Amino acid sequence: MKVNPYKVVIVGGGAGGLELAAKLGGRFGPGHIVLIDRAAYHIWKPSLHEVAAGTLDIHREGLSYFMLAKDCGFTFIRGEMAHIDCEAKIVSLMPVLGEQQEEVFPARNLSYDTLVLAVGSKSNFFETPGASEFAQALDSTDQAERFRLKLLHALAKADRSKAENPGHVLNIAIVGAGATGVELAAELTQACADVAFYGLENLDPAKDVQITLLEGAPRILSALPEKMSTAAQQLLQARGVTIKTSVRIASVDAHSLHDSQGECYPADLCVWAAGIKAPAFLAQLGLACNRINQVLVDKRLCTSDPSVFAIGDCAQASWGDEGAFLPARAQVAHQQAAFLRPILASRIQGAPSESGEFRYKDYGSLVSIGHSRGVGSLMGVLTGKGLFVEGVFARLMYMSLHLMHHLAFLGIVRTGFLAIGRLFLKRGAPRVKLH
Ligand SMILES: Cc1cc2nc3c(=O)[nH]c(=O)nc-3n(C[C@H](O)[C@H](O)[C@H](O)COP(=O)(O)OP(=O)(O)OC[C@H]3O[C@@H](n4cnc5c(N)ncnc54)[C@H](O)[C@@H]3O)c2cc1C
């Protein structure tokens, strides 16, 4: 009699889920390891601001999950998880529809022995009137691409308006000056200059495009060391970005934002990068969740159901013993995936479960400021003290994080070829994606 293999189902192939599926798949194979994602291809989410600015081409950057599944030894199933039945241990997926609403993959039910939720997070508009309607979030490649096209159209329109009205200015507002907002602001200054270089005759982006970064806290990058905020602020201001701190946006409309003090900020384009929440469906699964839908996990990353783990942005995990929680960062998702590997391996092998608790090691933070600069604070492994880095070196280190993510599932040779290939392709393409 054939015995069903022990099945680990991972939902969400992002910074945490894909690395976990690839490592376990390489060891146990597609009969044991199943990855589900609603998207057809993977992109490292921290590079979405580059897709939005057009400095990274999603059609080159995206890696097909079906290809990765073949290479890494897991089964890939495309679909959006809608529900789980914890009693019956079944995940329900919605059908995948094509552009004409035709069914590409049907609704499906999949059984699991252990489930890992790694579905990430999305923007939190905090119920600000008009925000979800008029501000663009950068949660997915579709949204980043949509913003890129809006930017190209807005620049072309501003170029025409400038010919008729020399005082015309294109206003771009970014709400939230965490890593996403800061990186996007820097990337946009570069992208606007590059688009103008390729054929805008009347627009001088340095004068005619006004990028404003609006932050509720008293300083930008408020979750990171003060030295990083100061350095990032100087670099952004040198690029002409206007920074307003201690500003609470109270409403957004088609052409402007209004703060709680009644101040109005004109905005032809608005990006919302002011906080996250986990997908709403998580709160309907019967698992313990917090106010922003994150699933509560214990020190072993296990949810209130012993057969369900959660990692990355969609989980609320404690940090230290003083009531703090881990931040929504790729580094956290990566370390949590590495922690779960031996626990899941023991379950598959029917061996006694690995003991131990997840301990996050903060190796510091790096923020990219355009294509040639960065700022960062690195934790000295030997000294335990923070080391401040900036400039080209910080930017190169930031780029190496992306490569290290690829390394986790492509291996050293393919990551090397991919990096070199992309370097050559860049030589033959415009500096910014124009179509
Ligand atoms: C523009 C930007 C810049 C950032 N910069 C940095 C940075 O510099 N450093 C840093 O550490 N962090 C950064 N972050 C945060 C970082 O991207 C996240 O913390 C990290 O990606 C979280 O990893 P994850 O595995 O939890 O989720 P994700 O990487 O978001 O992956 C979630 C996956 O789940 C899939 N999914 C979602 N819902 C479903 C569903 N219902 N069914 C099936 N699949 C589903 C998605 O398609 C996706 O593939 C940035 C984020 C953004 C948006």
What does this structure look like?
The protein folds into 3 domains: 8-121 and 278-357, 3-Layer(bba) Sandwich (FAD/NAD(P)-binding domain); 131-272, 3-Layer(bba) Sandwich (FAD/NAD(P)-binding domain); 365-427, no CATH class. Helix 1 packs parallel to helix 10. With 435 residues, it is of the alpha/beta class. The model has no long low-confidence stretch (mean pLDDT 91). Helices cover 34% and strands 24% of the residues. It has helices spanning 17-28, 48-53, 58-61, 65-72, 131-134, 141-164, 179-197, 205-208, 226-238, 330-349, 392-427; strands at residues 8-11, 33-37, 41-42, 63-64, 75-78, 80-85, 90-94, 96-97, 103-105, 108-111, 114-117, 122-123, 136-137, 170-175, 209-214, 242-244, 249-252, 256-259, 264-266, 269-272, 276-277, 295-296, 308-310, 315-316, 318-319, 324-325, 364-369, 373-379, 386-390. The strands form 10 sheets. The chain has a 5-stranded parallel beta sheet with strand order 5-2-1-11-23. Residues 11-17, 36-39, 45-46, 48-49, 80-81, 118-120, 138, 179-180, 183, 279, 312-314, 328-331, 333 line the site of flavin-adenine dinucleotide (FAD).
Structure, briefly:
Helix content is 34%, strand content 24%. With 435 residues, the chain is α/β, with parallel strands linked by helices. The strands form 10 sheets. Strands 5-2-1-11-23 form a 5-stranded parallel beta sheet. It has a 5-stranded parallel beta sheet with strand order 13-20-14-15-16. The protein has a 3-stranded antiparallel beta sheet with strand order 6-7-10, with no helix packed on it.
